[in-house]
Write a structure and sequence with these properties.
The complex is a heterodimer of chains A (about 180) and B (about 140). With about 180 residues, chain A is an alpha+beta fold. Chain A has helices at about 15-20, 25-30, 35-45, 90-95, 105-115, 125-140, 145-150, and strands at about 65, 85-90, 150-155, 165. The radius of gyration of chain A is 19 Å and the shape is globular. With about 140 residues, chain B is an all-alpha fold. Chain B is built from five helices and one strand. In chain B, helix 4 (about 85-105) runs antiparallel to helix 5 (about 110-140). The chains are: A alpha+beta (about 180), B mainly alpha (about 140).
C-alpha cells in the first residue's frame, strides 16, 4: 500500500489559563521579550554580560538559551515539549547580580529546599544568595543551606507567587540589594 | 529568557523544580538546635561579629579579588573596632580577625563565645590605636 504524505497539524493555541489555573493573572501576563535568535544575540553582546558563562564556558555545551514564544508566560512548563527540560530566568539576575550557570550545588540545594523554580525566587532574594556565597568564600568554607536558612526565612509569595528571603530579626547579615 | 539543557547532558538541572510551583515551601528560620555542630559554630561566629555586609558591594566586587578582600576586611574590622583604618592595616587586621574568630569558634562553646569576642574587640581597638599612633609619628 502506498504511503500518503501527511503534514502534521499545527499545535493548538496554548490555553495558559486552563493549563495553569492556579497562577494569578499578573503572572500569566508576564512573557519574555527575547522572542527571536536576533534578540538573544543582541542580548549576548551586552557589555555587562562579560562574565555570563552560560554562553561561553566549555562545560556548558549542554546548556543553551532559546528564544521564548511571545504568548508563553513565565510560569509555563514542559507540557508542550516534554523531551527538553528547561527553565525560565529573568535576565536581570544575570546582568545585575552576575549569577552564572550551571547552578552550584548550594544554589540547587537551596531551590530544592524551598521548592521553587529559579525564576520564582525574587531577584532581590537571588542577591542575598549571591552575596552569601561570596561571603562564605571569604571565610574559606563551602556555603551551607542550613546556615543560610538560619539568617533568612522564606516568606509568603507576593501576587506573582514569588518567594522572598527576608533577613531574620536579630540575625541581619546582609543589606537589601 | 528560556534556558534548556540537553537530555544527554550532565545533571545540571536535577533536583530543584524547573517550573513554577503552586506551593513553595515556606520556611521558618532554622534554630541553632537544628544545625550540625560546624554550622552552629559558623552561625554563632557570624552573629557575634555583628557585621551587616553590603550586598550590592559584595556582588560588585566579586571578580576583583583584592578589592573584595580589602572591603570585607574593612567591614569586619570597622564594625568591631569602630575606627577608620588605613587599607593595608584593615587587611592585616581582617586576616587576624578571621583567623582568630575561626579558631575561637572551634575552641569555645556557644555560651563562651560572646565574652571572647568582646575581649578580641578590645584587643583589636588597642592594636588599632597603637598603629594609628605609629602612623601619626611617621608623618
Amino acid at each position: 500500500m502506498a504511503r500518503t504524505k501527511t503534514t502534521p497539524n499545527p499545535p493548538p493555541p496554548v490555553n495558559c489559563k486552563a493549563l495553569y489555573h492556579w497562577d494569578p493573572e499578573a503572572l500569566l501576563a508576564e512573557t519574555s521579550q527575547l522572542n527571536t535568535h536576533e534578540d538573544i544575540d543582541t542580548y549576548k553582546q551586552s557589555k555587562s554580560l562579560d562574565k555570563f558563562h552560560v554562553f561561553g564556558r566549555e562545560l556548558n555545551v549542554f546548556l543553551k538559551v532559546l528564544p521564548c514564544k511571545k504568548e508563553v508566560p513565565m510560569c509555563a512548563n514542559d507540557r508542550a515539549d516534554p523531551n527538553e527540560p528547561f527553565f525560565f530566568m529573568y535576565t536581570t539576575v544575570f546582568k545585575r547580580l552576575e549569577l552564572r550557570l550551571p547552578f552550584t550545588g548550594f544554589e540547587r540545594a537551596l531551590l530544592t529546599e524551598v521548592n521553587v523554580a529559579p525564576a520564582q525566587l525574587h531577584p532581590n532574594s537571588w542577591a542575598f544568595v549571591r552575596a552569601f556565597v561570596i561571603l562564605y568564600n571569604y571565610l574559606g568554607h563551602p556555603p551551607s543551606v542550613d546556615v543560610f536558612l538560619y539568617f533568612f526565612e522564606a516568606k509568603n509569595p507576593g501576587k506573582k507567587l514569588w518567594l522572598s528571603f527576608n533577613g531574620v530579626v536579630g540575625r541581619v547579615l546582609l543589606t537589601l540589594f | 529568557m528560556k534556558i534548556c539543557c540537553s537530555i544527554h547532558g550532565p545533571t545540571f538541572l536535577d533536583e530543584f523544580p524547573l517550573y513554577w510551583v503552586e506551593k513553595p515551601r515556606l520556611k521558618k528560620p532554622r534554630s541553632l538546635e537544628d544545625l550540625t555542630p560546624s554550622d552552629r559554630e559558623m552561625c554563632q561566629l557570624l552573629k557575634s561579629l555583628g557585621v551587616v555586609f553590603d550586598t550590592a558591594k559584595l556582588i560588585k566586587l566579586e571578580f576583583f579579588a583584592k578589592a573584595l578582600k580589602r572591603f570585607q576586611d574593612q567591614e569586619m574590622v570597622e564594625s568591631l573596632g569602630g575606627n577608620v583604618l588605613q587599607d593595608h592595616v584593615a587587611q592585616g587586621l581582617g586576616d587576624f580577625l578571621v583567623a582568630s574568630s575561626l579558631a575561637l569558634s572551634k575552641a569555645q562553646d556557644a555560651q563562651d563565645l560572646r565574652p571572647e569576642m568582646v575581649k578580641l574587640k578590645e584587643e583589636l581597638t588597642l592594636k588599632t590605636k597603637v598603629f594609628s599612633n605609629r602612623e601619626t609619628a611617621m608623618y
